[in-house]
Design brief:
Number of helices: 5
Helix content: 25-40%
Strand order of the largest sheet: 2-3-1-5-4
Order of helices and strands: HEHEEHEEHH
């Protein structure tokens, strides 16, 4: 199997750039992408079981890997939810599939978002990990528009080894993640 293009780019271009920018003494300090988690929850759907089956099929098309079904941990009467009931789906991508998914997301999927001006930069968690919510699966090229039964929203979490948000953002920007540029008004208030 051939090495993904983005992984080669990471090793040849991103690693030296990050090492020079942050003056890392050890190669193991350089941030790397560890995994990508794609998850969805169908808690509000009246036909939850069928909705989860649809979500599993959609996530499998998008990621190329069969997702695991998630279950409710405890009963909540207000949400009409019982312990052990099917609730959503989740898949964790690593190694080759992770790099190929990231490449497709950066170059094809993200620009398909309606009124796309870049991804928000406020979704870092304080430890260098980045999460984004996708409200509609139709932006993915693997999904056929006439086959969509229901709108399914996803959360995509990019888990990095970066200790801070700034280093995580530098890693994702160097990989080509299309973050939103701050407006002049935001730059003035930051200074």
């Amino acid at each position: 199997m051939s090495t993904p293009t983005l992984l080669t780019y990471y090793k040849e271009k991103v690693v030296p750039a990050l090492r020079a920018k942050h003056n890392y003494a050890n190669v193991h300090q350089i941030p790397r992408l560890e995994k990508i988690v794609v998850t969805t929850c169908m808690g509000k759907q009246p036909d939850r079981k069928q909705a989860v089956e649809d979500a599993v099929a959609e996530i499998a098309k998008i990621t190329g890997q069969k997702p695991a079904v998630t279950y409710a941990r405890k009963s909540v009467a207000n949400f009409k939810l019982r312990e052990g009931e099917v609730l959503g789906a989740r898949v964790t991508l690593r190694s080759t599939q992770m790099w190929e998914f990231l490449d497709r997301f950066i170059n094809i999927t993200a620009p398909n978002i309606r009124d796309f001006r870049g991804l928000p930069t406020r979704s870092f968690d304080g430890r260098g990990n980045y999460a984004i919510g996708i409200s509609d699966q139709s932006i993915f090229p693997e999904i056929e528009l006439d086959q969509i039964k229901r709108n399914i929203g996803f959360d995509i979490i990019f888990v990095t080894s970066a200790p801070t948000d700034a280093e995580g953002r530098d890693l994702l920007e160097a990989l080509g993640m299309p973050f939103r540029k701050p407006s002049k008004k935001q730059e003035e208030t930051a200074n």
